[in-house]
Amino acid sequence: MADKSVAIVGAAQIDTFKTTDRSPVGLAALAAKRAVEEAGLQMSDIDAVFSSSSYYAMPTLTMAEYLGLSPNVVDSTSTGGCSFVQHLGHAVAMINQGLCEVALIVYGSTQRTDAGKLVSMAEQSVYEQQYGLIHPVGAFGMIAHRHMKEFGTTSEQLAQYAVSAREWALLNPEAPYPTPLTVDEVLSSGIVASPLHKLDCCLVTDGAGAIVVTSGARARSLKQKPVWVLGTGEAQNHRNISQMPDFTSTRASVSAKRAFEQAGVGIADIDTAHVYDAFTISLLILMEDLGFCAKGEGGSFVENGRLAPGGELSLNPNGGGLSFSHPGMLSMFLMIEAVAQLRGTAGARQHDGAKLSLVHGMGMTLASHATAILGNEEPS
Amino acid sequence: MTRPQIAPRGEEKLYFSALADGNLTYGFCLACSTSHFYPRTLCPNCHSDDIESRVGSGRGTIYSFTTQYRAGNPALEDQVPYTIVMVDLEEGYRMMADLVGSEPEAISIGLPVVAEIEHPDNEHPVVHFRMEVSHGR
């Protein structure tokens, strides 16, 4: 059987809180350079460019021009924050089709420097624009209220996740806030969109990240120990929050099932999980839909430090979007942390002997989903 | 300016002109007998284009809501805090609008609401919901 293995061979992130004198594309270019260099490759080896952006309507044209590249294929799939995990799945397919050999997936944002709030080109529906729903926190407030109504989830439980994320961040020297957080501090941080408080929401940061993906044949001869892409899956079901059929369940269950089946592993095999935490409630619902706990039990699942360092699962060990970095679209940084864990280079937050990682990105308001299963042992 | 300005096109314009006449319309598919909102040129359930624009009662219940303590648009800064509701209408569709006339503490999922149409001068009409049992404001 033909070798269909594909691996991540380079990964880098830069200025994950605040940058200076760098535009979004300029910052992204530096992340790309670092990722290519640490792979032991040259920029001229890149023959495919993948990007999504809140700044550039045609981001692969913008990126490739800035980098001086003329790629054979590009993909600017734009589904919100999960775009880069989708790009990874598409890169695997393109590499296996022979359309390209070395793919660069790259992203940069300066939203903290720009405005201190989410930068988005996303248009609003004319049927909803008049009401001033704040994207995305207003929609997540409605999602949280519904989860509370159906399952008895509490604000204290949501705050527990924010506290656990901060505990992880304290182990990450690049995280911006080096002080612990308490449930009371989350609950007294002021309501932005009920029932969500300021500290139920992710940080607003700058940051750029890039990963380099290539065939197994090429990966084996490169500088880094390959991180194998064992399975990927994607799914979606709405664009506007009003069209989400059930506010408490998502198609993350579908994308995860596809990725697990392809990888031939199950959720019990996962050592580290990297799940999109734009908000405490988004994390909680995704954990249910990915299968880490039963539907409706997310509230009790996040209690008692289960997701904190030393708990049952190494979840977002870099501190995640809530306490490490969230430059508008998070999934790039979820993948980069998974790579660090699987290489064993994550320092104080390293999960000892991590072999398998799950990355799950979501886009917009639980609208789009992409799951990847990564591992450091070569697939047989 | 009292509301974020919008630029409807095509079937979107038809919806807002019906609102201007005092009618809240939704899409009804004559092929599969399901309702949808926002109004579309084809049915999202069976993909028939045999769609009728129907006038709804405006009556429904709150599926979920959020009260925002920051404005989502500069035009609404003097309205803060304001509440946005997702409403399940009795004709079988769901729509989003704001809820007027109630204090945040009085709002909860499942309560009955009714739509009203406001039509400010030189602006597009806008739908609001109000609780059927008024809690005053």
Describe this structure in words.
- The complex is a heterodimer of chains A (380) and B (137).
- Chain A has helices at residues 24-39, 59-67, 83-96, 111-114, 137-151, 155-169, 183-187, 216-219, 252-263, 280-290, 298-301, 320-323, 331-343; strands spanning 6-14, 48-51, 73-75, 102-109, 191-193, 196-197, 207-215, 227-236, 272-275, 314-315, 356-363, 368-375.
- Chain A has 380 residues and is an alpha/beta fold.
- Chain A has 2 domains: 6-116 and 206-230, Thiolase/Chalcone synthase (Peroxisomal Thiolase, Chain A, domain 1), CATH 3.40.47.10; 137-200 and 232-375, Peroxisomal Thiolase, Chain A, domain 1 (3-Layer(aba) Sandwich), CATH 3.40.47.
- In chain A, β5 and β6 form a beta hairpin.
- The radius of gyration of chain A is 19 Å and the shape is globular.
- Chain B has 137 residues and is mainly beta.
- Chain B has a single domain (11-131), classed as OB fold (Dihydrolipoamide Acetyltransferase, E2P) (Beta Barrel).
- Chain B is built from 1 helix and 8 strands.
- Chain B has a 5-stranded mixed beta barrel with strand order 4-5-6-8-7. Chain B has a 3-stranded antiparallel β-sheet with strand order 2-1-3.
- The chains are: A alpha/beta (380), B mainly beta (137).
- Chains A and B meet through α5 and β5 of A and α1, β4, β5 and β6 of B.
